[in-house]
Structures are given as structure tokens and as C-alpha cells.
Amino acid sequence: DTAVSQTPKYLVTQMGNDKSIKCEQNLGHDTMYWYKQDSKKFLKIMFSYNNKELIINETVPNRFSPKSPDKAHLNLHINSLELGDSAVYFCASSLHRRGRLIAEAFFGQGTRLTVV
Amino acid sequence: KQEVTQIPAALSVPEGENLVLNCSFTDSAIYNLQWFRQDPGKGLTSLLLIQSSQREQTSGRLNASLDKSSGRSTLYIAASQPGDSATYLCAVNTNAGKSTFGDGTTLTVKP
After folding, report:
1. N or C: which end of chain B has fewer CB within 10 A?
2. Residues of A with CB below 8 A from B42's CB?
């Protein structure tokens, strides 16, 4: 029944590793997002995909690469992890029609990434 | 560039009090504004969504107002309860769905 689900919920890994976080939504939404919440609880958008097409790409290191195999999935792959990547990453989805936002964003439960 | 500020950063009140959380934004060209609740170690729960054409929205003990011209929104919580303790985030959204979040107000309601 989970609308937006992320896996894993917790991820602890060493510097330099490559890791992926998966996100799936069963709401029939056409737009998905990745947000990063830092230690000060500040949430900032990273990427947005609409129907598998990248529409928002904030200033994010190119070590971060989103991948959308279909509009229900948006995975986040991170190469060469650094200590500063430690944060909580949230996936979200919303619905657009003819380019207009028509439904509020729903968020996943977050993935707490710790780089050691 | 849109900037969103929430005041106060933290608030502690005794149970039963009515309270107001504030959110201000610098660019009034928003599509809608959304209030969220985040419990420690948990995800975000959407509380209220106000379209740019609306002035307020109500859900139970919660009432959110929006004054787009002055770049302000308030979240009013009536008869607060300990279960209301959480961090409250406001987010302003563009038509493309991009959300800019404030840094939140951490609310503690004491029994």
C-alpha cells in the first residue's frame, strides 16, 4: 500500500564506494524527484524526472546520476562516495497534466546514507 | 532565486495552546504552497496544500493561510496536543513541481 517506497532505508558504506538507492511509486504519477536533507534538516531538490525525462537538475556533483527506467521508478546512483554525501535522501512523486502540476507531492520515508 | 524562511526555528508550548507557525518566501510567483510534518527519523507527511489562488485551507485542527502578494503563509494549530510534536516544513512549488523548502520549525508540545 506504500505510495512512494525507497530502498534501502539505511545505508552505511565506506568512502569511495558506489551505491544505489531505489525508488518506486504506485500512484500513477508522472513526475518523480530526489531531495537531499542535510544534518541541519534542510531539504533541497536534486533532480526531477517527468515521464522518464530529466526536467530539473540542480547543482549536484556529477557523481550523482539518476536513472528512470520507467515513470514509476527513479533510482539514484552515487559514485565515489564522499563523507559529505552523508544525509537523508528523499524520493517524491507528483502528477502533472499538460505541463501543469495538478496533485501535491508525496514523499518516501527517506534513505539515511552514512559514509564512513 | 526562491528563498523560504520559517520562524520560529523552535517552539515549545504547553498542551492545549493555540499556536502559529510562519513561513515567508521571496518570489511570489508560486504555483502552490504545501505544509509538511516530519517526525524524527521519518519521512514527510503532507498536511495541507494551498493553491496560489486560494487564501486558506483547513484540515481538522490545522488551518493554513496564504498571502501570495506579501510572500507569507501561516500554519495555525488549534488546541495543541503532545502528538503534534514534530518538525513542520513549508514548501513553495513552481508549476514544474520544483519545491523549495524552508528550514522548518521544531514544535514541542508538553503534556
Report:
1. N
2. 109-110
